[in-house]
Amino acid sequence: MLNNIRCNYIQVIFVEKRSNIIEKLEAFSEKEILSYAIASERELELFYRDLSKDKGQLIAEFLETVANDEKAHWEVLLGIYREKFGEETLQLVEGVSSVHASLSTETCENLVDALRIVLENEENTYRIYNYLSKKAPEHRDVFEYLATQEAGHIEALKMYKDYFEAQLGGNEISKTPITAQLFSNPEQYYKPRTKPY
Amino acid sequence: MEEDIVKRLEALSEKEILGYAIASEEDAKAFYLKLAEGKGELIENFFKDLAKAEEAHRTLLLNLYKKIFGDESYLAPQGIPFLESTINAVTLGGMVEAMRTALMNEKVAERVYKLLAKRLPEHKALFDFLATQERAHYKAIEAHKEYLEGLMRGKPDYADIPAHVIFNQVEIYYKPRVL
Questions:
Q1: What is the residue range of B27's domain?
Q2: Nearest to B174 among A58, A61, A72 (CB)
Q3: Cα diameter, chain B
Q4: Would B148 be classed as within a structural domain?
Q5: Does residue B176 sit within a domain?
Q6: How many CB atoms lie within 10 A of CB B105?
Q7: Which of A79, A189, B47, B162 is most exposed, with the fewest beta carbons within 10 Å of its own?
Q8: Helix/strand/coil for B21
């Protein structure tokens, strides 16, 4: 069912400028904001799962962990949505421009793109949960918990960004394709491969 | 205690420091699995993921140990304590205490890997990666601790509430119910 929802929801933006995401959402109903959050989490889950493919087990395990978190988040949100509105059909948010029609690893030609896009998304979801915790105080603890987990993701992604920047020597990160080779250094100590990446 | 542990490790050989790091990862894994028990699936998954990451670290270190020293029979150095790993995290207050211990563990682990990166520079990329992961764990645990502290703020009696009761407020929305 969510796949259908996702198809109908393709116009929803997943990357918004930090400064205006909450401003824009202010104009929307709680149903629209929740719909936006559910679709965003779903996209993030798929993005992390795509990104984890063929990168080596070590980094894949981290990305799968984050993907599982995002899956749990949209399931929690859908539970709230169902309780509040008695249905699972999401309500399309209109009037929010699309920067990226969808999150996809195909849009990320290099590591810095992937990290930038995903960090912006994580920061936006963090802001949305903080906003919802005030707008829907009956679910404050839930939204604060989700914000807590997003804060953890943001910090972890920043750590990885710092690590790769250090490994690649500053600006070179912006030119680096996301290949398994990038992750091969720690990987060689984990599950040694019999053939090169 | 963190400072004391690191200072003592600095005086040891690479073999002993690696032995300590491997044993610490085993301890950390057990600690997180214990912390995960009976809290509800969402928070359990958070701690189980941490345990899984520590297990991966142990594997990495053990493979490195074997590569350098030719076998896997590492020994943790005598006289250097591991951080407190016995926990009673049934209540919310106990959970916050356990997370403070976890934060200290992660901090020490990060410092140990930074030390190893200096002592074994040919494996610096690996130790930098491990230090990165421990730092990421620290931040994630810190966020969770602050969330729990936030719940208890101004409500001293909350400290004695079973942790699973608190997490149940989130958990009830997790498992879909039939309409």
A1: 2-80+88-171
A2: A72
A3: 64
A4: yes
A5: no
A6: 25
A7: B162
A8: helix
Measure in Å the smallest separation between the Cα of B156 and chain A Cα atoms: 17
CATH label of the domain that carries residue B113:
1.20.1260.10
- Whether residue B177 lies inside any domain: the answer is no
The pLDDT value recorded for residue A11 is 31
Model pTM score = 0.86
CATH architecture of the domain formed by A31-87+104-179: Up-down Bundle (1.20)
Could you tell me if residue B106 is inside a domain?
yes
Contact (Cβ atoms closer than 8 angstroms) between residue A132 and residue A33: yes
Enumerate the residues of chain A whose CB falls inside 8 A of the CB of residue B133: 62, 159
DSSP conformation class of B162: B
Beta carbons of B52 and A156 less than 8 Å apart: no
DSSP class per residue in B85-142: -----SBHHHHHHHHHHHHHHHHHHHHHHHHHHHHSGGGHHHHHHHHHHHHHHHHHHH
Chain A CB within 8 Å of residue B140 CB: yes
Buried b (16+ CB within 10 A) or exposed e, A34-47: bbbbbbbbbbbbbb
- Chain B residue numbers with beta carbons less than 8 Å from the beta carbon of A141 are 151, 166, 169-170
**Dihedral sign for Cα atoms in the order A148, A122, A35, A105:** negative
Q: Do B143 and A185 touch (CB under 8 A)?
A: no
**Tens-place pLDDT, residues A125-170:** 999 999 999 989 999 999 999 999 999 999 999 888 888 777 766 5
Higher pLDDT residue, B172 or A114? B172
> Is the Cβ–Cβ distance between B62 and B74 less than 8 Å?
yes
Instruction: List, for residues B3-51, the tens digit of each pLDDT value.
Output: 888 999 999 999 999 999 999 999 999 999 999 998 889 999 999 999 9
The domain total for chain B is 1
Q: Name the A residues in 83-102 with CB < 8 Å from any B CB.
A: 83, 86
Nearest CB to B169: which of A86, A142, A152?
A142
Indicate the residue of B60, B136, B144 with minimum beta-carbon distance to A186. B60
